[in-house]
Amino acid sequence: MNLQQLRVFVLTVNYKKLTLVAEKLNISQPTVTFHLNKLQENIGVPLFLTSSNRLIRLTDVGESFYHYAKQMVGMEDEILNMVGEFHGLQRGRVAIGSTYTPATYMLPQYLSLFMEKHPNITISLEVNIASRLLEMLINYELDLAIVPHYRWEQKDYIVTPLAQDDLILVVSPAHPLASLSEVNFERLHRLPMIMHERKSVSRQLIDQWSEAHQLSLQNVMEVSATETMKEMVKKQMGAAILSKKSCEREIENGELTGFPLPSFPEKRHIYLVRKKEKLLTPGIRAFMDCILSEYVPIVD
Question: I need a labelling partner for 274 at 20 to 30 A (CA). Which of 64, 125, 127, 192 fits?
Fold first, then answer.
């Protein structure tokens, strides 16, 4: 078993087609098949289920093997990148993950500054939900993640609070609630709401808060994009609970009206997260210095 065989195996699972794997690695399709057969021969157990319709499906052993193979391939890429950075043999690369709000309203200005200072370092940005980004950190697919509050295992990560970003209620200025100085639970009960998708961190916090206070919100629609939610609120299709940072411009311009949530249990922060065993290459350190120069870590 060697790393080339593992890489072929991981790409086969990811791409589902041997032709795409061959194209990615610039090898022939028979060579891809040879590596896969040799890998299964070396470990002595089948990794793929036989299928008459040529679908690539993993055995139970294959599923478990993929979990570790993906990490090993990711570590090899990381090692090659690190050596290149330290010895100047190739351009450095920093892989960043971010949830939607920081990626849209916090990161662009710092990415621009970083690219100006470090033109030879390539940045890749994955925008996804927090649970997926933390999974990618564990699998060495990301160097850093920027996410809101999440139930992570502190033993696995180094977590730095960057900025406070509370959830607030937003309505159209023409909404009946807009003229009030504050909003209480009575006003919120059965209020038509445009809600976040269920897997998002914000939705989980909102559901926990509403259940704790026996608050029934009228869910008229579930939307995954913050910008779409804001536009729907402006059109008076419902109220929404959104990140304060994502609404600052519209509230300042009078396009939206915002209210604190009554008895919301905790302040919500944006965090910089990295895996504890992760080696900080010069590129990663440079990016961390860039963002931490503005967002001085706060006490959580």
Answer: 64
